[in-house]
Design a protein that fits this description.
Largest sheet of chain B: 6 strands, mixed
Number of strands of chain A: 2
Number of helices of chain A: 13
Largest interface: A-B, 56 and 55 residues
Strand order of the largest sheet of chain A: 1-2
Number of helices of chain B: 16
Radius of gyration of chain B: 23 Å
Radius of gyration of chain A: 24 Å
Number of strands of chain B: 21
Oligomer: heterodimer
Largest sheet of chain A: 2 strands, antiparallel
Structural class of chain A: mainly alpha
Strand order of the largest sheet of chain B: 14-18-13-17-15-16
Order of helices and strands of chain A: HHHHEEHHHHHHHHH
Distance between the termini of chain A: 9 Å
Shape of chain B: globular
Structural class of chain B: alpha+beta
């Protein structure tokens, strides 16, 4: 097991390095550079101004030198400096990480809990009206663009009904502390987390339902039934446990997006997280921030792929790690 | 110079029908800043969002009323010598920086002559006319020009010439000074906190040199990246002021239906934002003057204004905004006339090439404007392709002249010599900037006129020359002028004196008071 993990980690390091080089080249291939964007926003510029900016940003160096400087820094976990924001990239990401983790983790748990429960319920009532309702809703949320759901949710629950804050991380200027602050953040969290969670909930519902139905037709379930076990025990111990494998695969994918996967939601709800940082960095051509977020996201995906593989083994003893 | 001010204030108050309410102190002002600025030290950064926030923290020597007449700020009095070469400013006494250090004329000399000369390209262009900047005593600054420069009295606003603290910046690397994170100015509000991605918080400067100012206790600038969410922020009462450009134009009607909601187009007179299509005069179909004339008359700008810009703003009548000095209202028409456009097109060399039209990537409203323009041009016989792009890509393509037609808008800074000449003079044709003479219009005769007008000290002579220039440009149509853009500020009606100068919210919220 330990050797397996170590081998995977070494492989991951090489993949990460390749991703870095690829990202760096792709970003630099996009038209425009951060100096031009900054000068553009100022509405006036001259050659000296642009040269000053490019020198400050290190953009006056040839491409391979810039790449080498970046890689050298990255392997020492130095993600560079954002001239646009006047801060080291690591600090920027670290600063935004809690907000993003709170949002994506909440969405993750919401979707996995509700998705699996609803999927199991739908499978158990296959063909009845409650199954139809659950399946239809799941299809609807699966097909609706996140951006639109987010805006409509804000309009309905915030503007029209006034139940929940429509954007932001906490009430600005309220200076809450302790429990009051947690409650305030919680209220702000409801809409973005639900919006972000809806899509994955829908996938989990469909996946769980299909998988449950498939497993429940297998011979060992018939055997269990013949043994006289209660339907509840059969569903839990025999069907669900076997039906969970594809769900875990999917959960691994979703968990991999835990850092960078909330771009739209964070933008619409003005959630001060990493997804938004990335989104703004793209339009500002803030290379270092963008590369930093990609780096952390890629690392997360690799990490969660590894964790998924390990969870497989725990859930399904039939799966063995082969060296 | 100042004696006419009280009467002017009264006149403005009467014209606006402002009820005579007693000014009230206290309260919190919640505004929007969009996008999040790269920094708050105006002068080191010149971005529009920086200027919006910095107007509360920093000050300049003068402010300008909505007719572009100078008003006191850090300078309470000023005079210009008859030969137009010496400008003398008398500064307020007892002004303190936010860290308690005294402000003096040395700060002004340092800011302009050393710091801004290095960091501020737009001011740098005006400073070539300046011979010396001196401080004969602590409260006097004298600018001596090497030749008269007509628009000079118009460059003392806070976005062009902010005064920064010498004791913090002298001898440092300005752009990387660690104090940039905690800006120190002389303005009515102090910097308190910047929560990246959420808000910027300013608090009242208790030591401000004008008694009773500012009236409000604190100002929050909320950072909300999505336009629709900014509208929601106003609708739910989280923010009370939407500066120009905060929301998409198609949301304005919905927002204005809310109770206690006011709107004003004022506060942009100094900038006179004018939109146009760059027409590529360097090469391709748009190098032909008749093709350019065809474009000009093909555009249904009234429909564009009413349908896309929610009826805000005016149709451009030529290269100058009507709020810019020396605007001539008596010019040949450049109006919508598709038949005339077809005639010009028939007289041109255009033979059906596909034109690349670059929209301005500043949101949905601009995208729709580009779609209207494309349709208009197709209607008279052009083939037009919309090029999808983002801000950086737009910068790159316009800077490299890689387009046939490209949307843009520019500020005019109150005077044609500051904000208009740069678009049309040959000496300003250079790859690498989207803000110079991008279209590549060359006319040596006009270049001589631009030069003559800039250094003339006679207002009549300047008017005469600029009128001539405007007429000649309309004949040549180097660009297709679109609109004097209206960037309306939307606010709750119980917020008073929000927009009082020619740069509006960029002058800060010194005079704002909230009726409780």
């Amino acid at each position: 097991m330990v050797r397996f993990i170590l081998a995977r980690l070494v492989k991951a390091a090489f993949i990460l390095l390749a991703i870095l080089v690829l990202n760096f080249s792709l970003i630099h291939a996009a038209p425009g550079d951060p100096a031009a964007v900054m000068a553009g926003e100022a509405g006036a510029t001259d050659e000296q101004f642009l040269e000053d900016l490019r020198r400050r940003f290190g953009l006056d160096q040839p491409f391979h030198v810039q790449l080498w400087i970046y890689i050298k820094g990255a392997v020492q976990l130095d993600l560079g400096y954002s001239y646009r924001r006047g801060m080291p990239v690591a600090e920027l990401i670290w600063d935004r990480l809690p907000a993003t983790l709170l949002l994506t983790a909440t969405a993750f748990f919401i979707s996995i809990i509700f998705g699996v429960i609803a999927g199991v319920a739908a499978a158990a009532r296959q063909g009845r009206w409650s199954d139809s309702i659950i399946s239809t809703l799941a299809l609807l949320f699966y097909a609706t663009p996140l951006f639109w759901v987010a805006l409509m949710a804000a309009l309905l629950f915030s503007v029209t009904l006034g139940w929940l804050p429509g954007f932001g991380y906490e009430t600005v200027g309220a200076n809450h502390t302790g429990f009051a602050r947690a409650l305030d953040i919680g209220r702000h969290l409801v809409l973005p987390a639900t919006t972000l969670g809806l899509f994955f909930t829908a996938i989990y519902v469909r996946m769980t339902r299909a998988s449950m139905l498939e497993v429940s037709r297998l011979d060992f379930v018939k055997t269990a039934r013949a043994k006289g076990l209660s339907p509840g025990v059969i569903q839990r111990r025999h069907v669900l446990r076997n039906a969970l494998l594809p769900v875990i695969t999917l959960a691994g994918l979703q968990a991999g997006q835990i850092v960078g996967g909330a771009v739209l939601t964070e933008t619409v709800f003005a959630w001060p997280g990493i997804g938004r940082l990335m989104f703004e960095a793209i339009s500002q051509r803030d290379y270092n921030v963008l590369l930093g977020v990609f780096f952390v996201s890629a690392a997360m995906v690799l990490l969660f792929n590894l964790i998924t593989d390990i969870v497989y083994v725990i859930v399904d003893p039939r799966i063995r790690i082969t060296q | 110079m100042k004696s006419f001010l009280p009467s002017l204030t009264v006149a403005v108050a009467m014209a606006l029908g402002t009820p005579a309410l007693a000014q009230q102190s206290g309260g919190t002002l919640n505004m929007i800043v969009q996008p999040e600025p790269p920094g708050l030290v105006v002068g080191i950064w010149q971005n529009a969002p920086t200027q919006l926030v910095a107007g509360d923290i920093y000050e300049s020597l003068l402010r300008y009323d909505t007719d572009l007449q100078p008003m006191p700020s850090l300078a309470h009095d000023w005079s210009i010598s008859d030969d137009g070469l010496t400008y003398t400013f008398h500064l307020h006494e007892g002004v303190l920086w936010h860290d308690g250090e005294p402000f003096s004329a040395d700060d002004v000399v340092f800011s302009v002559d050393v710091l801004l000369r290095e960091t501020h390209p737009r001011l740098r262009a005006s400073l070539v006319h300046v011979d010396t900047i001196e401080a004969p005593d602590d409260n006097t600054v004298v600018f001596t020009l090497s030749e008269p420069f007509g628009p000079f009295i118009g460059i003392f606003e806070v976005g062009t010439m902010p005064i920064l603290p010498r004791h913090i910046y002298e001898g440092t690397d300005f752009a990387n000074n660690p104090m940039n994170a905690t800006p120190i100015g002389t303005g009515p509000f102090r910097f308190n906190e910047w929560r990246q991605g959420s808000y910027i918080h300013l608090v009242r400067n208790e030591d401000y040199y004008l008694d009773g100012r500012p009236h409000v206790d604190e100002v929050y600038y909320h950072v909300i990246p999505d336009g629709a969410s900014r509208a929601v922020a106003f609708e739910t009462g989280v923010v009370d002021v939407l500066p120009g450009g905060s929301v998409e134009y198609f949301d304005i009607e919905r927002i204005m239906a809310l109770p206690n909601t006011c709107i004003t187009d004022s506060g942009w007179e100094y900038f006179g934002p004018l939109s146009w299509l760059w027409l590529n005069n360097h090469e391709g179909p748009m190098a032909d003057v008749n093709a350019r004339r065809a474009v000009m008359h093909a555009l249904d700008r009234e429909f564009m204004r009413d349908a896309i810009w929610a009826g805000r703003g005016e149709l451009a009548t030529g290269p100058l905004s009507s709020s810019t000095r020396f605007f001539d209202e008596d010019l040949p028409s450049i109006g919508y006339d598709p038949d005339l456009a077809r005639e010009f097109l028939a007289a041109s060399d255009y033979d059906g090439q596909t034109l690349n039209l670059l929209p301005l990537p500043y949101g949905e409203t601009w995208q729709r404007a580009a779609e209207v323009a494309r349709q208009n041009l197709i209607d008279v016989g052009f083939n037009v392709n919309l090029v999808a792009t983002d801000v950086a890509g737009w910068n790159q393509r316009t800077s490299d002249w890689d387009f046939d037609l490209a949307f843009t808008f520019l500020y005019q800074y109150g005077d044609p010599a500051l904000g208009v000449a740069r678009t049309y003079v040959e000496s300003n044709i250079e790859r690498g900037s989207p803000w110079n003479n991008v279209s590549g219009y060359r006319n040596p005769e006009l270049d001589a006129l631009w030069d003559a007008a800039a250094v003339s000290t006679s207002e009549e002579e300047r008017q005469e020359i600029y009128s001539e220039i405007q007429r000649r440009l309309i004949e040549d149509v180097p660009n297709a002028w679109l609109h004097e853009l209206g960037f309306p500020t939307i606010y709750r009606c119980n917020i008073h004196d929000l927009v009082t100068t020619a740069i509006g919210l960029n002058d800060g919220t010194r005079d704002v008071w909230i009726e409780q």
